[in-house]
Amino acid sequence: MKIKKIETLVCHARMRNWIFVKVVTDQPGLIGWGEATLEWHTRSVVGAIEDIAELLVGEDPTRPEHLWQMMYRQHFWHGHGIVRATAIAGIDLALWDIVGKVAGLPLAKVFGGPVRDYVRTYCHLGGGRMEDFYETPVDNAKRFADLARAAVADGFTAFKSMAVPSTMPIEGQKPVRAAEAAVAAMRDAVGPDIDIMVDCHARPSPAMGLKFGKALDPYGLYFFEEPCWPECVDGLAKINAALTTPVASGERVTNLEAFKEMFDKRAVEICQLDLTHCGGFTAARRIAALAEAHRIALAPHNPQGPVSTAASLEFGFSQPSYIICETVHNDVPWRADVVQEGFTVEKKGRIVRPNTKLGLGITINEKAVKKHPFQQEIVLREFNRDGAVTDW
């Protein structure tokens, strides 16, 4: 068996373009599906996949570890960069999908068999605009409370929000009070038994991240996400050591060596590797083993499309340290037209039962994908009140 060709299918889905990767073999009907979605870099990733594909055509698709080494180490430049790592991930996921189909098993069984009966999921409420935090803090807090109630009514027992505004490297108490008001409103709205997570989107400096973290610590957050740049490993470690709330990060970390530094310095309690950015299953399994050695939990970043979700869930059924999965369930009304999934979702608790089909258990409707061709994502810019560029 050999790889005949590697194709990409781009599907515009409101905030992002999903990039589906299709690995076609020389065996009739045997294909693998992956995903390499990377917002605002769609054309770069598609081009990177085309470059890498030259290495793989004619190779045996059931050797994903060997082919991962080729993709990562050859063409001279190692696969550290986010575009290259995402391209590798999309192909790797599709290769493992083929392995499962050839083996006649769901991938969780290929990886050693399910270690749990279900995976709990959570949704993302989104975030307020900076001016909402500063100009209408009461209305902003009420909006977060309403979104929190809606998530619980939809069956979720956990949700995440971007309840921390952008700030300058050092600011006073105003943004901290605004964030605290938003979290307090959510906690009052849903009570003590619902798990709330706050995503800082790596906007704050380490100093401001620590301020926000200490202010929100009394609210019993499930985790506090990206309180500063992931490159500031010492800053993350300082924040993690100072809080009772577990710190989470890792969605923008793309290689094993960087995860090792993060774990060695105890910068996080929760690893948010992204299967579509860290190199796919082949790399994620190594990262997960390293996290297990450090007793660090796994809660993958997964705001992308349906193949990413299927992969993140399949991974969850095979990993003992996995605690919860981020999911998107209502980003576009036609999501179900694009994909058929092998797993089932129970609305009460939003828990997912295992995939019963082969490989990733998904089928992509290519005709439905073609109804939503590439569109340039909305360009998002963020500035401090003094006009200086800040993180979005």
Give your account of this protein's structure.
There is one protein chain. With 392 residues, the protein is of the alpha/beta class. It folds into 2 domains: 3-105, 2-Layer Sandwich (Enolase-like, domain 1); 110-360, TIM Barrel (Alpha-Beta Barrel), CATH 3.20.20.120. The chain has 14 helices and 15 strands. It has helices at 42-56, 64-73, 82-103, 107-110, 130-135, 137-153, 174-190, 206-216, 233-242, 256-264, 280-293, 306-316, 335-338, 366-370, and strands at residues 3-13, 16-25, 31-35, 119-127, 158-162, 195-199, 223-225, 247-249, 270-271, 297-298, 325-326, 339-340, 344-346, 351-353, 363-364. The strands form 3 sheets. Strands 4, 5, 6, 7, 8, 9, 10, 11, 13 and 14 form a 10-stranded mixed beta sheet that branches. α1 (42-56) packs across α3 (82-103), α8 packs parallel to α9 and α10 runs parallel beside α11 (280-293). The protein is globular and about 60 Å long. The termini are far apart.
Secondary structure elements and pairings:
Elements: E1 3-13, E2 16-25, E3 31-35, H1 42-56, H2 64-73, H3 82-103, H4 107-110, E4 119-127, H5 130-135, H6 137-153, E5 158-162, H7 174-190, E6 195-199, H8 206-216, E7 223-225, H9 233-242, E8 247-249, H10 256-264, E9 270-271, H11 280-293, E10 297-298, H12 306-316, E11 325-326, H13 335-338, E12 339-340, E13 344-346, E14 351-353, E15 363-364, H14 366-370
Parallel strand pairs: 4-5, 4-11, 5-6, 6-7, 7-8, 8-9, 9-10
Antiparallel strand pairs: 1-2, 2-3, 4-14, 12-15, 13-14
